[in-house]
Design goal:
Elements (H helix, E strand, L loop, with lengths): L25 E5 L3 H13 L3 E5 L2 H9 L6 E4 L8 H11 L4 E6 L15 E4 L5 H12 L4
Parallel strand pairs: 1-2, 1-3, 3-4, 4-5
Helix pairs in contact: 2-3
Length: 144
């Protein structure tokens, strides 16, 4: 007897078309490089996200203290002053349902205990497809 089950096949993340779960999702982007910050903000806005941006961890926390209530946090590890790992810890204390995507230069930070609370990790690239998919997935699987 041959039992065959149809299973959906998932394309690699870079080939899947991102679907924004809620077009009104609010993203706080934390990127130290001004050019990249502008570019990522443009890319994410074009996907239908509402985007606030900060140049560092302290600025991001201050925005959240002043009422910015993001659904997702996209950040890098190497930030001036407070690094991304510290920012993640502080942000999740006040926003435990926050979807988190590390968008960083190298994958070695995945092994750091402080990053394990993140939902997704993306290595920075000139192609934003992987970031868009990771963000959509993180928001889709965010605890309600």
């Amino acid at each position: 007897m041959n039992l065959a089950f149809d299973r959906p096949t998932l394309a690699p993340a870079r080939l899947r078309t991102p679907v924004v779960p809620r077009p009104s999702a609010h993203v706080l982007l934390v990127e130290s490089d001004p050019g990249l910050r502008r570019w990522y903000r443009h890319v994410l806005s074009a996907e239908g996200y509402s985007v606030d941006a900060a140049a560092g961890g302290e600025e991001a926390l201050e925005k959240m203290r002043q009422g910015v209530a993001p659904d997702a946090l996209v950040l890098e590890v190497a930030l001036p002053g407070m690094n991304g790992i510290e920012l993640l810890r502080h942000a999740l204390q006040d926003h435990p349902r926050l979807a988190v995507v590390f968008n960083t230069e190298c994958e070695s930070f995945k092994a750091h205990f402080g990053t394990w609370a993140a939902d997704r990790f993306v290595v920075k690239s000139s192609d934003p497809s992987e970031l868009k998919v990771a963000l959509a997935d993180a928001l889709r699987h965010r605890p309600q």
